[in-house]
């Protein structure tokens, strides 16, 4: 059978593997340029239940558009396996969107005993970068930007463990084997020290910091710093339109704006959109009510961190895309002459 839709990068193959094993079926599953290809054989009742559960219990991040089933003679598979993806043919498979860091990863991020404690590129099969890292189809690790980072033994064990959260999670990595943060000055020189701590110090000192995250760079200032927000407004040529204010959590966001159940669901959902919210009269000056961040009477847009590097700061941050309208955000380091370079 062949499954089309949003079925790559969403934990679909591990789901198929677990489902087939639970039903005692043999066969294999692999990605291809159109979606996911499955061969399954066994007792008739088991195969019928497999077909029903395939769509009924599919992973939450997936969206099945079409299932094409072709009957044939059993191939004599022994057990069920996940095979290497087939890259042949024109690509038509959909690519999943980047997904906000899940609660399980956030717990690991905050746990001093965890080997990914404060590691900004933490992710699993249920969250993290998808669209940002994919270079082609099928979306297996060799076809992502993570291909350059060989997994350490611990990550490899997690990647190949069918019972784990990181089974076939293509961006699986850790401080021992994955990407690392770097902080550069406006001339491009790498600065020493902890990049997170140094960037936080720069924000507290009133600087504009360019942060490369999912989808490209955004420019950040401390939301309560009116002078820094005014400098960012000048660089963006954005005299009136409000900036988004990123809060660490709902409790912090509720200090800035009125948040009903619908808004709360959006701010805590997987997509982490920017939400336009009614301003609280008691909001701290500069964070949302000050002229540099959100000129009156405009309501402040608010968001919560979508990627783990953005979860590490604890204060509200004003953020804007590193672009000059109508150009898209920068995805590589900006030149020294760019009006959006860090300072």
Molecular structure report:
Strands 6-7-11-8-10-9 form a 6-stranded mixed sheet, with helices on both faces. The chain is built from 8 helices and 11 strands. It is α+β, with helices and mostly antiparallel strands and 343 residues long. The C terminus is likely disordered. Helices cover 21% and strands 15% of the residues. It is elongated, with a radius of gyration of 23 Å.
Strand adjacency order, main sheet: 6-7-11-8-10-9
* Number of β-strand runs: 11
State the separation between the terminal residues, measured CA to CA: 55 Å
The chain-level mean pLDDT equals 85
Helix content: 10-25%
Radius of gyration: 23 Å
- List the helices and strands in order: EHEEHEEHHHEEHEHHEEE
Structural category = alpha+beta
- Low-pLDDT stretches are 287-292, 295-299, 335-343
Outline type: elongated
Relative strand content:
15-25%
The largest sheet is: 6 strands, mixed
Q: So how many helices?
A: 8
Itemize the secondary structure elements and their pairings.
Layout: E1 2-6, H1 12-22, E2 26-32, E3 35-41, H2 44-56, E4 63-68, E5 80-82, H3 103-110, H4 153-159, H5 195-204, E6 209-213, E7 216-222, H6 226-236, E8 244-246, H7 250-254, H8 261-268, E9 275-276, E10 301-303, E11 317-321
Parallel strand pairs: 2-5, 8-10
Antiparallel strand pairs: 1-3, 1-4, 2-3, 6-7, 7-11, 8-11, 9-10
